[in-house]
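General statements about sequence and structure are easier to judge against a single worked case. No coordinates are needed to read the tokens, only the vocabulary itself. The sequence in question and its structure tokens are set out directly beneath this paragraph.
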Amino acid sequence: MKTEDAKTLAESALDTLAAQLDAGKSASLTAYLASMARFHRYSANNILLIHVQRRDATRVAGFSAWRKLGRFVRRGEKGIAILVPMTLRRSLLEAGNDVGTDDATTTRAILRFKPGYVFDVSQTDGEPLPEFAEVTGDPGAYVALLKSFLASRNIELSYANAQLGAAHGASLKGRILLRDDLPPAVEFSVLVHEIAHELLHTGDRRADTSKTVRETEAEAVAFVVSRAIGLNTSTAASDYIQLYSGDKDTLLGSLDLIRRAAAEILAALNPSSLD
């Protein structure tokens, strides 16, 4: 791909992404956020309990919560035990405290825990959960070229679902983790996203940028490169960026860095390197 062609494609892609961000949340993102709001945020202890009992768990909820989402726990499925907090109120006089009053209704809150059970989405059937728009298409030989680029930069690529949980990938300073069950187009886009993190966010600059900025930059690079090789990106990138509170201004503040990282990756995807 010629430098001039790559530059034109990048400019067009970034204009499209800016317009999508300016338009606000897509219908698919709005539905996704409404669905996710029904999932509790679990404590570190409960996350550990879930992981020990079901390492492949991604989204968990109680029996009733799944019903509200239009899904039902399959008969015979074993629940994942967690600790559920509950607040008890006890009379201070009953507890033997001298509070200097005869008012036995004076109470204090006591935090206790009881066992509860949740179920992973894989243990349920029913209505599909709202999802992000996904990148689609066939990246073909570009996946192999992308992996060659990684090798040339001494960046290790590993596949590890359990360590990623619900995430598709992760950048670990010289090492990228990726799920092994992603559709080809999604795998390509996620891999570019993580490569962008490796190029832009492993040095001193990381401490000077917010999570919002880093995720906006990485996803914008993935958007540019994915469109450049002919994949259908839909609203996947803008949905992802807005999930991390990014917007058009966030994107515009990083345009030069995004262009440079995308150009470096696109140069490695030159079809002539297949010969």
